[in-house]
Amino acid sequence: MARRATTWADTTASTRTAAVNRFGLGAKPGERERVQDARGWLHGQLRPAPLPPMFKDLPDSLSLLRREADYRRARRAARNESDDGSPALAQQRALRRDAIEDIAVRYRHAGATDRPFAERLVHFWSNHFAISIDKNSARLLAAPMEREAVRPHVFGNFRDLLLAVETHPGMLLYLDNAASVGDGSQLVQRLARRVARRGDAGAPRRLGLNENLAREILELHTLGVDGGYQQQDVIELARAITGWGTPSSREWTDATTAFVFRAGAHEPGARMVLGRRYAEGGESQGRAILGDLALHPSTARHLATKLARHFVSDLPPPMLVDRMAAAYLRSGGELNALYAAMIDDDAAWSAEARKFKAPQDFLVSALRAGSIDLERRPQSLNRLLQALGQPAFMPRSPAGFPDTADDWASGDGLRKRIQAAGMLADHVPDDRMPHAIALDVLGTSAVDGLLGDALRRAGSPREGMALLFSSPAFQWRV
């Protein structure tokens, strides 16, 4: 569907509310009224932008991996020399402090940005390509992966986003591809000769193929679980990306990038994936396969379904998904075509289109509505996310955090939101009036009736803000 000209439907209060609250991150005071053309406001955000200044001083993945290697060496030295471990402890504390700040900057930006639709897309793709910091190998790299691999490619071609993520050290370490070695690789052959020379041919084999990343590329990142691939496709893709890894501890001094291709660990030979043959080409073999996966019809449908489910409804209209997938394929995998097809489709703006806020959405929308600044207490923000059940960058699964009301609207979850609402209300500036804020960010239709009466009767501004944040109207992106 081509983009429609602006009509009366694009300028009504309900569409302006949907633009900032359903497609955006929740309205800031004055934001709804500044949106004159809902679709035009969203389209205007579909463009690359420089990395926000607050992100620029954060450490990159290479420096973090280097510092972690230094910390491990200091810890080993402390054990071997029986000292008090002070250097290692100081390094550990510095790494932890930087990790907390990285998360705090993410939410500080989300709470203040004037491009909330663009920021929601960053969060969507970060969760689509989820890595979880409860796994030790990825604990420092989830936020950097979002900054380095996701943010630069959100408005480009999906192939570039896919390649950036799959070659990022966070993904390679989280899904164990950095340790994946081809059975017929030079490295395994050298090890076999060494074992044979020593006369212990029966020694256990320590190197081999790891299918984790290949499986998740097919199941989660591209085709989808019902996308038509077989187990042999997983194996063949896993062989094609052997050798994709990170620098070893001996290479840190000279390393200039956190991704390396180790030819000696790569499985030689042609590969057959989804019925197509890929000639041997070292690193380029895996890249060629990912490029074709990015343009597969099953990938188009998988991405369109997830995007529509996230922005429109838990059960998105099938025709909307069809139109989005078709636009994606026509464009050659351009993500802006996928977004535009959704924005321009009337189905995305229907009265039935609404989403229950996940805990992160609830928190960010409260920060924006209440003009809350948690800059001086970055740890409190993550503790609050943990209490609500969605700790930052910790989905505990490559599938990412779930995205439907059934996953979040439990009795216990709502009870925790009521508790969180009181804490958040404590940080709203004293001069903000709850009823006026509710009208500003939710609109008249949401505040007329019981909610408006309750806010007017509130005993204090703090009590009123707690009522607003815990109200049913505030729990939904409509």
Notable characteristics:
single chain; 478 residues; mainly alpha; 3 domains; two-stranded antiparallel sheet; two-stranded antiparallel ribbon; 25 helices; 6 strands; 55% helix
- The proportion of residues in beta strands is under 5%
The end-to-end span amounts to 23 Å
Unreliable spans? 1-9
The helix-and-strand class reads mainly alpha
Secondary structure: number of strands: 6
The number of domains is: 3
Concise account of the structure shown:
By secondary structure, this protein is an all-alpha fold. It is built from 25 helices and six strands. It folds into three domains: 53-174, no CATH class; 177-294, no CATH class; 355-477, no CATH class.
Summarize the SSE layout with pairings:
Blueprint: H1 8-11, H2 13-23, H3 31-34, H4 38-43, H5 61-81, H6 86-112, H7 116-128, H8 142-150, H9 158-166, H10 169-174, H11 186-198, H12 212-221, H13 231-240, E1 244-245, E2 260-261, E3 271-273, E4 276-278, H14 283-294, H15 297-311, H16 318-330, H17 335-343, E5 355-356, H18 359-369, H19 378-388, H20 405-408, H21 411-425, H22 434-442, H23 444-447, H24 450-457, H25 461-470, E6 476-477
Antiparallel strand pairs: 1-2, 3-4, 5-6
Helix pairs in contact: 5-6, 6-18, 6-19, 9-14, 12-13, 15-16, 16-17, 21-25, 24-25
Tell me what the structure shows:
With 478 residues, the protein is mainly α. The protein has three domains: 53-174, no CATH class; 177-294, no CATH class; 355-477, no CATH class. Helices cover 55% and strands 3% of the residues. The chain has helices spanning 8-11, 13-23, 31-34, 38-43, 61-81, 86-112, 116-128, 142-150, 158-166, 169-174, 186-198, 212-221, 231-240, 283-294, 297-311, 318-330, 335-343, 359-369, 378-388, 405-408, 411-425, 434-442, 444-447, 450-457, 461-470; strands spanning 244-245, 260-261, 271-273, 276-278, 355-356, 476-477. The strands form three sheets. A two-stranded antiparallel ribbon has the order 1-2. The chain has a two-stranded antiparallel ribbon with strand order 3-4. Strand 3 and strand 4 (276-278) form a beta hairpin. Helix 5 packs antiparallel against helix 6 and helix 15 crosses helix 16 (318-330). It is globular and about 85 Å long.
